[in-house]
Amino acid sequence: MHFSSQRSRRLRRAALLVAGLGAVTSSAPALVTIGDPAVHLIAPTPASADPGWRRTGGDGIYIGHGWMITAGHTGFGGGATIDGGFYDAYLGSDIRLRTLDGAGDTDLRMYRLKSSPPLPAINVIDTSLAPGTAVTLIGSGLRRGAAVKYDAAWHLNGTPVAYTGFLFGTEIGVKSWGTNRITSGVDYDDGYGMARCYTADFTAPGSGSTATADETLIAVGDSGGSMWASVVGEWRLAGVLIDLGVLPGQNWGEAAIHGDWTYAVDLAPYRPQIDALLALSTPYEFWQYKNFRGTPTAATADPDGDGFTNLEEYAYGLDPKAKNPRSAAPQIGLSTYADGRALTATFTRYNFAYDTPVVVEVSEDLVTWRNGPGATITLTILEPHTPVQAFVVRDATPSTGANRRFMRVRVAR
Q1: Taking the C-alpha atoms of 216, 221, 222 and 223 in order, what is their torsion angle to the nearest 10 degrees?
Q2: Fewer CB atoms inside 10 Å of the end CB: C or N, the chain?
Q3: Residue (of 95, 71, 14) closest to 285 by Cα position
Q4: Cis peptide before 398 (omega within 30 of 0)
C-alpha cells in the first residue's frame, strides 16, 4: 500500500502525464514517449488499440443508454462533450453511487443525457484487475511541463539527484492517452467518500519491468478520466480517475515525479449499482431508486406521512423521506395585473420529471377545465437551470364583476 506525506487533493476534469525517453520542453504535450509527441493527442492506432477515445470527455465517460459516469467530486456540469459534440443532461438526473457498505456516498457519479451520442454501450469490468495488468488511461487536462530534478530534500535542481519527473504545465483541456500497470488495490478516501481503488505507479523509463512504453500519471485536472483494460481480447472500462498520490515531502501540484501514483476507482465492485441504473426505463424509476435505493414504493404511497404521495413528491421536487410543510404544495391566489386581477398559481417542479407534468387548469363552472395557450399564461420560470424549478402561472382571463373563475393544479401521468 502507498502512503502520501500530505493529503492528496482532488483533480477536477482530466489530463495525463507520460514519461518521455527523449528530450522534452515546456511545450511538450501531456502524453509523450519515444517519437512524435503528437501521437498521444489522437486516438491510439490501430483501431483495435483504441479503448474509448471517442467516449471519454472532460465531463466523464459515456457508457451507453444515455448514461455518463464520472468522479463524484467533479460535480454535475449539466452536460458532456463526447466525440466532439456537446450533449445536454437532464437536471436532477445525477446520482452519487454508494460506498460498498452502503453507509455513504463514494467518489463516483452518474447522470443521464437528453440525447445519446451515436456510440454503442460498453462493457464495464465485472472482475477486479490483478497487479501487473496493463491499462490505458485517457484524460483531458493539463499538459506536461519541462523535465525536472530534485535532491533528497526536494530542492529544485539540487545534487545529488534523488527525484526526477516533469513540472506541471499551464495549458489544460487537451485530451490525451497513456499506459501503465496496476500496482495494487486499496480502499481510499480522497475526501469525497471511501472508494475501492487501483493504484498505478509512475515508473521512470528503463527502471524496471513494470514501466510501459507510454508510461503515464494522472495530472492536475484529471478527475473523471477513464482507465481501460483488455480482457479476453475486448476493451473494458476498468476505472475512473480520481486522485494523485505523492511522495513524502513532495509539493503536491508542482510536478509529476517518478514514484508518484494514480488513484482510479475500481468499477468492478460497483457493477450492481451501475447495472441497476442502466436498467431503469423512466425518470420516475430513477427518482425512486435515487431516494429509496431500489426498495419499491408505490406511486400512491406516502412513506413520510406528510400528505404528499410519492408521485406528488416526485413531480414537485420534494423530499419523500422528510415531512414537507403544506406550504410546499401549489399555492393559488389572486394577483393584480395590468388587465385586472387574475387567479395565479405558484409551484415547484422537478426538472427531470418530464414523464409527469404539473398541469394548471382553469374553469368557469367547475365542469369544463382548460389549460395551455388561451387558458393560462406562464409568467415566470424561476431558477431555470436548477433541478427544482419554481413556476408562476396565471389565468389568462381576469376575474372581473360577477365573472366566476376557478383554478386547480394537478399532477398528470
Answers
A1: 160
A2: N
A3: 95
A4: no
C-alpha cell recorded at residue 285:
424509476
Q: Minimal CA–CA distance to 168: which of 92, 210, 221, 118?
A: 221
CATH 2.40.10.120 in the chain: give the residue spans.
16-273
* CATH architecture of structural domain 16-273: Beta Barrel (2.40)
Q: Which residue has the cell 468499477?
A: 267
Q: Is residue 91 classed as helix, strand or coil in its secondary structure?
A: coil
The three-state secondary structure class of 335 is strand
Residue at grid coordinates 545529488: 160
Q: Residue 273 phi/psi, 5° resolution?
A: -70, -40
In tens, the pLDDT along 190-211 reads 999 999 999 999 998 778 778 8
The string of pLDDT tens digits covering residues 94-105 is 999 999 999 999
The two beta strands, 144-150 and 406-411, are unpaired
Q: How far lies 229's CA from each of 40, 197, 215, in Å?
A: 17, 15, 15
pTM: 0.88
